[in-house]
Structures are given as structure tokens and as C-alpha cells.
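Subject: for your reference before the review

Hello V.,

The reviewers asked for a structural picture of the protein, and I figured it would be easier to keep everything in one thread rather than splitting it across files. Below is the amino acid sequence we used in the manuscript, unchanged from the supplementary table.
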Amino acid sequence: MEILGFITLGIFLALMLLTLFGYIRTPVQTVLVLSTVLCLLVGGVFRYFSEGWNAVLLMPNEFLGGIILHPITALLTGLFLAGGLKASGGFEALKVLLGYLRRSPLGLVGTLVILINLPVISSLPCGRILAAALLPLLFTFGFEGGLGILTKSQLIVLIGAFTRNSMGSCGPSPIGGVGQIAEGFLGSFFPTASDGILRAPQAFALMLGTAVVALFLKLVSQRLYPNDVSLRDAPAGSRKEAMEQPITAPLEGYLALVLFVASLLIAIFQPFGKMPVQSVLVAGALLMIVVCRIRLRDLLEGIILLPVTAMAAGFLAAGALAATGGFTALGLALNSLVNIPVLGVAGMLAIFVQFQTILPLSCARILTAALVPVLYLFGPAKFAFLDWSQLAIVMAAYIINATTSCGPSPLGGGGMMGEGAMRAETGFIKGAYTFASMAIMAPIAAIYMKFLNLSIFQPDDPRFLRDIFTIIEFALVIAGVNILFIFGGSRLFGADANRNFVIQTIGFMVSGALSGGILAFSLFEHNIFAVLQGIIGGVVAALLIGLMVPKTLSRRMTATLSGPTI
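And here is what came back from the structure prediction:
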């Protein structure tokens, strides 16, 4: 059975890598279905010759048993509700409200900060929903969009930071978010895990990581790829004259926005008692359809199906791997890394939590559905590398890293929406997005989980205030050190692309060492040997991530990766 597991795991990883590097130019969902069919066929043949027909007949049950339906149904209902909001003009109402904010004492800067973090505030089940609605609005802030409020450089930072926040907001979403996959497994020990045990670490890490992305785009990306964004500044000496067109929204849009917010609040805080999230969202969507008189055609046009098909295909592949021993094989392979003295458990985990940033696909749910069961096996359920508290810490670091992985993916990832809005070549945002996920978000989420979510929340608990300050101290150190790296590295860049690439890769490795060391500390505290192993694992992961960042960009790359075949 172990041999079968390694064969099916090899099939799955080979197909994913061939797709990632452009050798297979079909949607990832199709490749995942192909992987599922091949794994089941190979598994059936292997079982027939080794165990007979009875073992083959058990495969369908084992296959279906590896598929978790709750996140899929929650995602469907969340997209149903968001589709109703779009069809009724709710996003136009949101744009009007943002316009009022800009003219309020908050001013332009305050409004832009809120706008950038709006995705994580709303936490929709897919970041593409809000991005598709608001990216055209952000484009208007530049010279070509008509308002001329922001320069080309400022607009790149705004669009890039907003897209980064969007393509990570699906993680903490309570309505079919990626994090709910891991929360389901943690529910084996933590009774209230389904209430959102991973939500706060993800949101906190995402907000801080978004700020670092903005800085990276300003100081690094625009220096590495100075001619790969075709946005234009206002001509020199031209008169800046805002040609703002008034944005209007129908009454139905405001009503839909109120119903949408109310549905989210009820789903999150459960003021009327425990009830399935799906029921709340369906009720809200139906009420929206009736009150706002939404036509079925408009409703269906507002629903984005990519994340649903990605999640379903990912769960199919996960079910096939579970039925054929692929997860066990992956666990054994990672277990073998533990036996390498310089890595150990801490080093292996430092690599594992970065896995989806190393191998970014079009939707985080694809690999999350396949790899969270493997991570679960590292806990008391099988390998016992970790206790339950340590498993929760690793889950927090892994999930935020996984959730944000669709942003830098060149396979139709959400970040390509931002690159399109800023008229950039494919790969422009990859360095900024992967750096923030690896160096900022994963360690911050781990520290947050360790010192807050696993603490006793009591007003008289003396540790509570201490833990708050501990998180602030770690956040300042992690962010501060990486900001210094960004400032220092940006001053070393020149005209030589190869030299720039080496400098950037070294910067990634140094930040990866810090990330791996902090993850190891959050798990094993003052075990110096484990921290050193975590540092080495972090360097290995960062090297793999850094080597995936393009040296230079070209129009040929864009034509290849975003052509009609994809």
C-alpha cells in the first residue's frame, strides 16, 4: 500500500508542477480531475492484483469519505449572497459610501487605507468577488482613469496592496473560507474551533502583510521591473483637473448592502442561537431577491464559479489520494525529513507551512483540501510530532500562507486581476506577494495563535495583558527587520538583472531564516536546537520561493500564461 501511495502522490505532484511551469496549458480544475481519475485507476489496478476485487469495491467508499462537503456548501451560499449583492447594485452603493468617506475628515489617505483593508473587513468567501467590483474604481484614481488624484507609482501600490488583501481575505471568511477546512480538523480537540479559532490570526497577519506588500511594491518591484507597467503619469506641466463622474446607486443597492451586512453579522455572531452558516446566508440571499426584486439572470451573472470548481476539484483529488494512500506517503516522505539532523521536526514544519507559496495554484482551496489532512496527521492522530496546541499554531501559520497563495499564482491566480488593472506584465507582483506571505504572515499568525487564541480570555487573567504586549513586540520585530531588509536591498539594486536577482534571493533567505526561527520558537520555545533547525528549514523554503520569482518580465510570458488556452 505504501508503494501505491508514493505512485499516486507522484502523479499528483507531477501534474501540478507541469501545470505550474506551463507545460500543461489547461485549467487547473481539469488537471485535478485528471489526477483524480489516474490515481483511482492506478489504485484500482494495484488493489486488484494485490488484494482482489473486494479491496477494489471498497475504494468508492474510501474516496467519498475523504471529501468534506461543509466548506463547499458554505462557499456556494456565500457566493449566492454576494451574487445577489452585485445584481442589485450593492457594490455601486458601496462606491457611493466610499465617495462620502473621501470627502469626510478621514480624507483621501484614510479612505484609501479603509479601501485597501475592505476585503479582510468584509471577509467574503472569495477575494475575486470584491476585487472584480472595486478594481475598476481604483483605476479611476490615476491619470488614465480620469481623476488624476494619484501618480503612476502610487496607483501601482494602491492596486497591488488592495489585490493582496483581497486574495487572502477568503481565509478568515466565516462563509466558506479556506480556514474552515483546518478548523474542521481542529474541532477534533477544540470544541469551539468551528466558531473561528483561526480567523483572528489570519486577519491580523493579513493586514500587517498588506502594509509590507505596499512597501515592497514601492521600493523593490518598481525598481526591478521599471518598464513593465504601462500605466501613464499625467504629462509634465499639464493641469491636474479632476474629472470625477458622479457615482449613483439604486435604492435596491442600499437595501441589499444592509441585508448583506446583517447576514454576515448574524452568521458570525449567532445572536439568535446556533444555526448553520449556510442557512443564514441562504435566508439573507432569498430576502435580498424578494426585497430588491433581483432577476435570476442578473443573479447568476454575479456569481463567480471558479473558487467552487477549484475547491470541488481539490477535494476530489484529496479523496483520491486518501483512498490510495497518497496522504500517508506524503506523511512518510516528510517524516523522513525529520530524520535529517539539520532539519528535524522544526525544520520540516518550517518548509511545510510555506508549501503553497512554493507551489502557488489558482485557488488556495486546491492544495489546502489535500494537505491539511496531512498536517493533521503530524499531531496526536498519527505521527505525534506535535500536541494539540502546537498543531493549532502550525495550522494558523500554514493556513494564512495557503490562503494568500492564489495571489502570486501565474495559473489564473487572483493577483493577475491586479496586474491587469495596473497594466503590468505577468509576474510583477509575485516577489512582493510571496515575500510577505513567507516573511510576515506565517510567523505573525503563529505568534498570534500561541499568545492569544490559546490563552485564557478572562478579565482577571494577568497573562492576557502580557500576551497582548508580547504579540505587539513580536510584530514590531518581524515587521521592522523585514522593512529594514526592503530598504537596504532596494539601495543595492542596479541595472544588472542577474545581480538584482541574487540580492533579492539572499534577502528572501535571510527573512526566511527569521520566519522559520520564530515558528520554531512558537512551538518549542527555548529549545535552541529546534530554533536552529527551524532557521535552516526557513532558509530552504525561502530559497525555493525566491528562485520562483522572475528575474525579468516580458510580453511573451504574459501571452503564454494568460492566453486563450488558460
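For the response letter, the relevant points are probably these. Residues 68-309+340-566 form one domain. The two ends are 36 Å apart (CA to CA).

Happy to draft the paragraph if you're swamped.

O.
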